[in-house]
Amino acid sequence: MYNWQTRFNERRAQFIARSLERLGGMDILIHNMEMRPGDLSMLKQIAQHFHQLNGAAGIYEMTDICKMAGFGEDQVTQLIQHNIDVGREEIQMLNEILQNLRRTLLGEQGEVAEPQTFQFDIQPGKGLADVVIAITDQSNLYALTRMLEEKNLSVRSCRSAATTIDAVKQRMPDALIMNIPQPDGNGYDVARELRSLPEGHKPAIIMLSQESKFSDKVMALRSGADAIFEQPIDLQKVIVKLMLFLERDKPQALRILSVEDDPDQAVFVRSVLESAGYNVTTLSNPRNFEETLIQYDPHLLLLDIMLGDMNGFELAKFVRQHERFATVPIIFLTTQNQLNFHIQSARVGGDDHLVKPVAPPLLVAAVAGRLERYRMLQKIIGRDALTGLLTHGTFMEQSAKLVSSYDRKYTVNLIAFDIDNLNVINERFGYANGDKVILALANLLKESFRQTERLGRVGGNEIAVIVEDLEEYELESLIEHVLKDFEAKRHTAEGMPFSATASAGLAALQPGMDLKTWMNAAEKALKVAKEKGKNRVISAHAASAWETRRTLQ
């Protein structure tokens, strides 16, 4: 929550003092215009002064100042647009507006406003992460609770499977840490129950096995766990893994660039948006726009339209011609509520047009709404439209980074899945139903390999997965379960049921391998799986041995 009363009256007094000085400068401009009535540059400066007075006065709830300055801005804008020579009548009108403004400002000096207190409901972030713990060993429970609280995490402890399920139904946590054996059941059932709930796909689930059993690891992953730790359990490693999962889902610090040459408006915008959790940089000189844009790399732009020699429309045109910033939201802030300004805003690629003075809750809501759409678009870009998996290019780019930084301290495996006889399914049931089969496999892989975000559709019916921290033999067993689950799925086409199978090739990343060699090893293993009868998984080692035997025969 942001309380605007903090320093409000102090800033209001500073604004009045600056505005009175501004009026003195405007007096000089009007006097000079009597000597040079055809000089449009001075008329444009007067319009800019009125514009800034109009916008900034609204911050301090000076509605009379807003009305007078807005009227002055409209009158001067019309003189400029219609190229009207400034005569005695126009000079008198401008002087009267300045006199009224000065009189009103002097009257405001003796008043202390009682500003509103605004509470923003829209926040880009959230409070303490909530972790549910279901551990029967008291020493581990106390130690883990203390370590989590030291990380500024909120902890809820449960004593059984039933109370754990009740706890997650009451409030969905950010993470769940539990023993596999529970006094009244097991952690697998708890994980499946959580995953079936609305929003149940979001929490990170970490299971602790009291024995070093391979079957526990496979069952944990199949039930929806993100990670499993076996005896002896290193609680510090559990914490490290948990923090990685929480950071993965944590919203990034969103950056906003505000281009505003009025210092009062700049302070207002920055204070309101920073109070809502955003990072804000203000630029007063639009001539430095290009350099600031590239260095700051904002997620959203707030542009004033009237910026002296340049205007916000020109800046927006520049942004939209820059491929890197083509999708960045642009919100215009202006005192002008005329139809032609709204039309121009849309033409240059603006996403919104807010009229000053803008209420803080409206400003925060407009920014939050545009940023949410922008972040959603960023997620869609680089994702396959059918499956939501990474596109071929994005998957290869991320995989190349992993290969270049591989240090042998952990195991990394690449799995290539391919649907068997998809061409037959397409010919018999139609391509739409073939797409449904691809989507079914993609969804199953998302559920089965929750511990990785590297899942990509690298071909028409081929999906690649990169998995860390599991040995080859462990992965083979897990993949066999996945293939059986996929075979058991029933699809329908015009009321006719049918099933499908898939094959998989598995290759471990070896020292000295580049991405192409690694991919080729997995593809080669997949090819052997197809040749050996399909609906199976073959490792790169087994594929090489099989081809060697076939060559000798």
Characterization of this structure:
- By secondary structure, this protein is α/β, with parallel strands linked by helices.
- It folds into 4 domains: 8-109, HPT domain (Four Helix Bundle (Hemerythrin (Met), subunit A)), CATH 1.20.120; 130-249, Response regulator (Rossmann fold, 3-Layer(aba) Sandwich), CATH 3.40.50.2300; 255-380, Response regulator (Rossmann fold, 3-Layer(aba) Sandwich); 392-552, Alpha-Beta Plaits.
- 53% of the residues lie in helices and 16% in strands.
- The chain is built from 20 helices and 21 strands.
- The strands form 6 sheets. A 5-stranded parallel β-sheet has the order 2-1-3-6-7, with helices on both faces. A 5-stranded parallel β-sheet has the order 9-8-10-13-14, sandwiched between helices. Strands 16-17-15-20-21 form a 5-stranded mixed β-sheet, sandwiched between helices.
- Helix 2 (40-59) runs antiparallel to helix 3, helix 6 (161-170) packs parallel to helix 7 (187-196) and helix 19 packs across helix 20.
- The longest helix is centred in the N-terminal third of the chain and has 28 residues, at 8-35.
- The N and C termini lie far apart (77 Å).
- The relative contact order is 0.07.
- Residues 112-127 have low confidence and may be disordered.
